[in-house]
Known about the structure:
GO molecular function: phosphatase binding
Radius of gyration: 31 Å
Oligomer: single chain
Protein name: Transient receptor potential cation channel subfamily C member 4 associated protein
Region (Disordered): 378-398
Strand order of the largest sheet: 1-2
Amino acid sequence: xxxGERSRxxxxxxxxxxxxxxxxxxxxxxxxxxxxARCLCPSAEAMAAAAGAAAGPGPGTGGGRATTTTNxxxxxxxxxxxxxxxxxxxxxxxxxLKERDKQAKWxxxxxxxxxxxEHSHPNSDFSQCQSILKEISPxxxxxxxxxxxxxxxxxxxxxxxxxxxxDLFGGVDLLVEILMRPTLITQKKKQKISDDLIKDxxxxxxxxxxxxxxxxxxxxxxxxxxxxxxxxxxxKKTFLQxxxxxxxxxxxxxxxxxxxxxxxxxxxxxxxxxxxxxxFCRILAVTISELDTGSDDKHTLLAKNAQQKKNxxxxxxxxxxxxxxxxxxxxxxxxxxxxxxxxxxxxTSSFLQELEEWYTWLDNALVLDALMRVAxxxxxxxxxxxxxxxxxxxxxxxxxxxxxxxxxxxxxYKLEVLYVLCVLLMGRQRNQVHKMIAEFRLIPGLNNLFDxxxxxxxxxxxxxxxxxxxxxxxxxxxxxxxxxxxxxxxFSDHHENxxxxxxxxxxxxxxxxxxxxxxxxxDAVVNTDRSLVCDGKRGLLTRLLQVMKKxxxxxSFRFWQARAVESFLRGTTSYADQMFLLKRxxxxxxxxxxxxxxxxxxxxxxxxxxxxxxxxxxxxxxFKRFNKYINTDEKFQIFLNQINSSLVDSNMLVRCITxxxxxxxxxxxxxVAEVLSECRLLSYMSQMSMRxxxxxxLINIIHVQTLTQENVSCLNTSLVILMLAxxxxxxxxxxxxxxxxxxxxxxxxxxxxxxxxxxxxxxxxYLNKDxxxxxxxxxxxxxSMAGVNHSSTCLPVPCKNGRLGRERREEVVPPV
Length: 816
């Protein structure tokens, strides 16, 4: 499988904290902008009308007073949009504000903002500002908590007038001015703002962003303010509030910031402790991932080619990745964080402090739900084990709850770190990252955490967070597993370091397989540094195979597990690698899932077919095992039905069978001849009518206008079939047969004309000057095209969607 064709995992994994804060990945756009949970607030105009209606008609004046209130709100909004007239509440007289406050239900917010404005002038010492903010803060934080913790149905019926009023009367702009005022003064002795005042300002800004539409986008448009926020991260007391606000702002920013623009970035990162660095990874996740432009499957290769011609230089995400790699010790610290055991954490004091202020870090509202469920389960378990001693159960719960908190805390940290490492492994500096994470023993460290943390036992109830359902991939436990599997996939794909997933005994087993088969050892196995491989009785790949075979039939992890194992096989075909997995029952497990369980999930089937293709390619022992398992016509028919149900999903396996059959037919070995005569699958594919049927359908289901990374593999598989026919001097016969099939369908020319257009596109897409032609040179030889080396220089593209999207590796195939 080559670059660009398919490694069906989402090209961009969504960080867990981002999912938790913004609601289910299936939700729509929200108040702050793209990426948030479904928008629950009314529009600005609706809020203005509601505020006016809330004032009600005054006694003896009919509707006049309501009209006055509405006019105030309308003039403020108009002034803020146009820059003329009223632009903030401080311009309105105090008497008028007092008169209208009660009936408009402003809760005194405009009057408090007027006082705040008066006490925050350039020469002020801000001494009174904090007391004023202490009065405003509860009004806004209460609405923010309702938005996060209230059931979605109830939240949709509620509104958030306090935060809207705060923004409408200029509160957001005033707090930004207060925070940035020290940077605007040229005097040597600059104003000093207390840490508590900064925290209050940040918390109020964040609460307003959550509940009021458009605030986050307005803040994102102010580059000076965004960069200023990074300077506040140097203070540990304000770090948490600052990081949370920055992440939300960057999440809706139209243009990605450039990390080089952040003042003293290297010294800022080096000043972070490990917990701060883990939280900072949540921000980095937004800056090193390509901006989300929608599902990859909906973007045709034609559109992608046009976009690439416009953007000739590296993207900002790629530039930011390079910037991070230039920070001394950055990757080493991430590896230490990713492999740190729970017992090595600094304790629960900082986490408990965060929980005290969870209204400013709203992820913790969701984390708290998960923690309480863990605690309740422990309490129930203790109560069951010692039902006659209720006091003991209570004591057990009190002593176990902090450990549960520590575990969940560590999981949340590792999610962000694994995500950043995964994106860097898929970037332009992939080899540099590979070298560093191997040196810092990331893989052995993850292997040591596999049973106790990554794939630890848990109950299903602990997987669903507040406001989500059982189908969400947003819970920390689930997302950690997915990020872990994505990391293994990126780490193993077309790289010799994949053998670090094994331990020394397993590497020796690979060597023994090669010696027994009388074939040379793979150079990468011989050259692997044994001091960097996994420790213990089992390597990480073997552990993954064990949990893969135990996974329930309906589990969504099956997709990710198959992708991770497939990446280990991808690249130069290795008989030893295949036999290592065959000896552990992988082929039988895959066939059981496809045939006996009759899997219905398209994504899972696709990943199983691709894995099966890599596992069986050119391996006569694999085909023999296949025939032993598929030992009845009924089973074989079920298998064929699964293949034919969607050729987009199964064509990689069809390609594997076609290439393998061609090689076996040219061998004179008695064992090969025996398998050729007995194997149902090879006998089926050896029929000319079957190959022509596959070829006809493969060409018919794709068109130039609909080619995507999802289905371009169908074009390449059809090219392989025709190329092999040409080698046997049967190409004219194949083309005439296609022509006859056109006439049978009573639509002359529709197949061959379509195929001609596809070939022209293929040439333009792969042979233009801005493509890397190295992979073309590697596969122009028909023997290379037979699967010996598939475009090892081409890499996966970081993904842009959060669910089961697919990165395709477009395998480069020479035209017929």
